[in-house]
Structure formats: structure tokens, C-alpha cells
Amino acid sequence: MxxxxxxxxxxxxxxxxxxxxxxxxxxxxxxxxxxxxxxxIHALIGPNGAGKxxxxxxxxxxxxxxxxxxxxxxxxxxxxxxxxxxRRGLVRxxxxxxxxxxxxxxxxxxxxxxxxCVSPVAFWRGRKRLGDVSARIDELLNQVDxxxxxNTLAGDLPYGRKRALELATTLAAEPKVMLLDEPxxxxxxxxxxxxxxxxxxxxxxxxxxxxxxxxxxVARIADRISVLRRGEIIAEGTYDDVSRDPQVIESYLxxxxxxxxxx
Length: 263
Hints:
- This protein is α/β, with parallel strands linked by helices.
- It is 35% helix and 24% strand.
- It is built from 9 helices and 10 strands.
- A 6-stranded mixed sheet has the order 6-7-8-3-9-10, with helices on both faces. The protein has a 4-stranded antiparallel sheet with strand order 2-1-4-5, with helices on one face.
- α3 runs parallel beside α5 and α5 runs parallel beside α6.
- The radius of gyration is 19 Å and the shape is globular.
- The two termini are 22 Å apart.
- The relative contact order is 0.18.
């Protein structure tokens, strides 16, 4: 499968410098340097235990770095909390489906749209406080192909459609950088293709960082790929670049191919 077209160097919007995380003497991430360019889809890949999710959680401050620095649009955000990063435009999804199952699909989007006017003591403000957001709701539903499910309870959606709804609620936050954690995990082939297309469409005019294990999906849409092994980046570039790298072949692609031959 051909790699996505690689664009010329652009402005770096998200950076990590010497990012490190230790857990009681165990080094999960050891000195990672990462540049995420504006307008690109940047994938983090690697074998199980490589440190992908740890790096992802460090970038979004769901884990506190042991050392190192994180910069968003040139501003040091290393000490900021996840909510503060979200207000700056760094918005993430999670591996586990995270929708409100007893709310309709459109009301799930309303929750995401009202982030600016809620507080810890007033979670739900209702649509009246938001004014007329019907057009915005319709726009988001259309972006993720959920118009026909607008009044369906989110808990009744097929799993692939729930992932699409999560993408819509992430987009509702108007992210500058959208971080997606294993967006195709647990999906069948048809849903993988649908979600991949939705992400590619949603990425137009945005920056996306994703942790992903599905190499066909990565090859299809990623502009740049960073390959991790044992908490360190061992290769970076386009899919064609990294797929030819001897270390990547040995530690990730090669081991996957051997496993597939045994099946």
C-alpha cells in the first residue's frame, strides 16, 4: 500500500524535548525528542511495551514527566494541567469508548460544545445557554456520517459509530492539535475503513497525532511516522522511510511478519 504524500517541512506546533518517564526505577520513556508539524498527521507506532501510550499521556499531561519539556506553539506547557492544555487547543481521545450512553448522539455533541460555559458545579447548562447551535451540531454530525443517528441513544450505537461520535465530540472542542489514542482499536475491517476516512477528512486544516497499531491505516493517512522501541524513537519519516529502516524491520515490522506467517 502506498504511503501518504509527505509535505514539505512546515511550522512545528507541538514539541517534546528530552521527555522522560520513570516508574520506581523503571524507565518507560527515555529522552524522547519529537516535532509535530502543523497540518500533518503524525503517527506513533511500535511493538507492545514500546512506550507509545506513555508518550501520548505525557504530551497531554495525563502523566507528569520525570524530566524534559513540552512546547505547544513555542510556549512551554510542561507544568500545565490537561484541562489547561485543552483550552489551548490540545485535545485528545481515549482508547476506551467515552460517550454518554443515555444521552442522544446530538446531546453528546451539545456536552462537548458547552465546554466554555460549564463549571465543576454546573456540568449541564442545556441548549438555551448555548444559543442556536443546531447548524454546528448538524455540521459535526455530517462530518462523521452520523446525521441519521442524531436522535439515537449513544449507548445503542454500534461500536464503530461510537468511535465516530467520539471524533465528533473531539472536533467540537475546535482543536489545534487533535490526539487520537488507538482510534481503530476493536473495529472490524469495514469500520476501520470508515473511521480512517473520517480521520483523514477531519484532519484537513488540523494537526493530528495518533497512536495506532493498524499499519495499513497508518500507511494510508500518516504524513510522518515515529517508531518507538523500549521508550526511545528509533526511526522517523514517511511510511516508505521507516518501513525500509533495518531497526524497524527487526523490532516491529519484521516481528509482525513472522507472526503472520505462523498463522
